[in-house]
Amino acid sequence: MLRQANRILTAAVLCAALSLLGVTQAQAADKQQFRIAWSIYVGWMPWGYAKDSGIVDKWADKYDIGIDVVQINDYIESINQYTAGAFDGCTMTNMDALTIPAAGGVDSTALIVGDFSDGNDAILLKDREKLTQIKGLPVNLVELSVSHYLLARGLASVGLSERDIQVVNTSDADIVGAYQSPDVQAVVTWNPQKNEILKQPDTYNVFDSADIPGEIIDLLVVNTETLKANPALGKALTGAWYETMAIMAEDSERGRAARAAMARAAGTDAVGYQAQLETTRMFYEPAAAAAFARAPKLGETMDYVRGFSFEHGLLGEGAPSPDVIGIALADGRVLGDAGNLKLRFDAAYMQMAADGEL
Amino acid sequence: MRRLINRKPGRAAALGLGLLPFVLVVIAYLFGSHTRLQDNPADKLLPPPAVMVDAIERLALEPSKRSGQRLLWADTAASLQRLGLGVGLSAVLGLVFGVAIGVVPHIRATLGHFLVVLSMIPPLAVLPILFIVFGLGELSKVVLIVIGVAPFIMRDLAARVAELPRELMIKGQTLGASTWQIITRVVLPQLWPRLIHSVRLMLGPAWLFLIAAEAIAATDGLGYRIFLVRRYLAMDVILPYVAWITLLAFLFDWLLQKWARRAFPWAEPAP
User: Is the residue at B40 inside a domain?
Assistant: First the structure.
């Protein structure tokens, strides 16, 4: 009897949840509570510190709003949750911002350019020292991720294409274990897995994101409608971020403590975290981040990224060309369909931080 | 007696009641999908049926641009091959070890406790070890299914052997049967329907391990496709794939049940 009651209850909850899914789409207008999702990655650890140290709350109070910063264990799941409307903002790379929320019709704005990968992502070969030797090998990587993009760029740089290799989709959580297997001769992955695999004997880093600087960019993306209706959210998040950046960059007791806290949260120690930071170009200064966002180079990068995404069907299988999704760049130019702008780079808030106007 | 437990629905009512939950789920889905699509016509989370039909047509009928295969069939063939090998091997191992442990006391004393411990190891927890020992290819996927499924079939069959009436064994021996003859003439004929039943029960876990293996490292398969397109929230592909997997699983279960009923009617409970 009790079990049956339980079952009926479960079924009712399931039905209710399914229909609620439709209604929970963040109501952009007059709301004062905001939710931001982030996941563990060297360049995003400051969000965890900013939350724990009260910096986020301080800035939220200043603009009279509430901001809940939530850590999600699975990176893709955090973006999917954001795209589904469960969060107002989320940390993600430029490529995932285009292929998940923007391609899913959620108009998104890159509010903060946090860093770009400067060696954090790499192609690693076993017993082979040159990238050209990758020809004919199976390559283990998370398919359709920035690793896949890096591989495509690397192969193109030595005149090879994806036809010359065989891509094996491998979970990022299992890639270090997979590398121990003699079947695996080549992997493409990111940190901390990359540094872990490089510790193995006879493993060579043959191509990494330092060879394509500034193309794999880590962003804080927020829902454009929400941001337009609530500029206070943009101001509070940007203010909190650059206060955290300033502390993180300090060579003081406070700076060291902050970096140590981030290292612990990332599951490594100060040395390991420092090693990851060295291959990450953090923008500690808002002016530098704003300048990077406005530079013409970003347009070139996004053009590569949308070309890659289109070729791999990431913009939707029915997409007729890479132009279906409009990308507004911070320098005012538009890539693709200006009538369907879904991804916007906006340097305005970073500029406010640089000008001390927050 | 007019009690709830004695009131039975008629044929038509039973059919209607059986369909009701399915209809409710479909309605809830359509309602949710419609609401979300009004807010955002490009919403990917709950795609409308037409979009899913398009996705199925594309995957099932059109050759893929990259490999030239019809992806749904290629994925299904790859997955069914792994599942078939894994479950088949598990059934053979289950039968051999189940009978040996059930019949021969020395083997039972040697392997009985070991098997209990072995079956308690969560297979997904030893994945890194499987990678190193069996590589990342087809073998490790089949082995994952076997490790997850075989010990339970062995234990189940050993227990079924132990349940056989002791009198049968004694009768066989008084008629001069050897151990081998007891196995082939007394034990095995009674074990076949139980083996089918055991395999039926383990099909669910077998699918689970198959999809887990394909999610971790693969180049094709139903689980591979689902975890790949999850990268860009292509629910228009994921939902039909889930429905397809469910249909296949249901079909196998039904076929095994039919087979058991037809081949071993004596083992079915009296109607």
Answer: no
Q: Which of B31, B41, B224 minimises the CB distance to A19?
A: B31
**DSSP conformational letter for A102:** I
For A302, the 3-state DSSP assignment is helix
- What's the domain count of chain B? 1
The answer to whether residue B41 sits within a structural domain is no
The whole domain housing B187 covers 71-263
Residue B271's pLDDT is 62
* Partner-chain contact B131 A180, CB within 8 Å: yes
CATH of the domain at B253: 1.10.3720.10
Task: Give the Cα separation of A247 and A256 in Å (integer).
Answer: 9
- Alpha carbons A263 and B105: distance in angstroms, whole number: 57
Q: What is the value of pTM for the model shown?
A: 0.82
- Give, to the nearest 10 degrees, the angle between helix B71-103 and helix B105-120: 140
Q: Within a domain: residue B9?
A: no
User: Does CATH number 1.10.10.10 belong to domain A32-116+217-354?
Assistant: no
Predicted confidence (pLDDT) per residue in B160-177, tens digit:
999 999 999 999 999 999
In a domain, B51, yes or no: no
Amino acid, single-letter form, for residue B34: H
**Phi, psi angle pair for A280, to nearest 5°:** -125, 125
Mutate to test the interface with A, among B23, B231, B236 (most CBs of A within 10 A): B231
Pairing of strands A203-208, A66-71: unpaired
Residue A28 near residue A223, CB atoms below 8 Å = yes
Tell me the pairing of strands A341-345 and A108-117. Answer: parallel
| Residues forming CATH 3.40.190.10 domain(s) in chain A | 32-116+217-354, 121-211
Contact (CB<8Å) A170/B216: yes
Q: Determine the Cα–Cα distance for residues B269 and B124; give it in Å rounded to an integer.
A: 36
Spell out which residues of chain A touch residue B42, defining contact as CB-CB under 8 Å.
Answer: 103-105
Indicate the Cα dihedral angle A298, A206, B134, B209, nearest 10°: 0
pLDDT single digits (tens) A209-248: 999 999 999 999 999 999 999 999 999 999 999 999 999 9
- Two structure tokens written together for B35: 């609401």
A74: phi then psi, degrees, rounded to nearest 5: -110, 120
Q: Give the CATH architecture of domain A121-211.
A: 3-Layer(aba) Sandwich (3.40)
Phi, psi of B82, deg, nearest 5: -65, -45
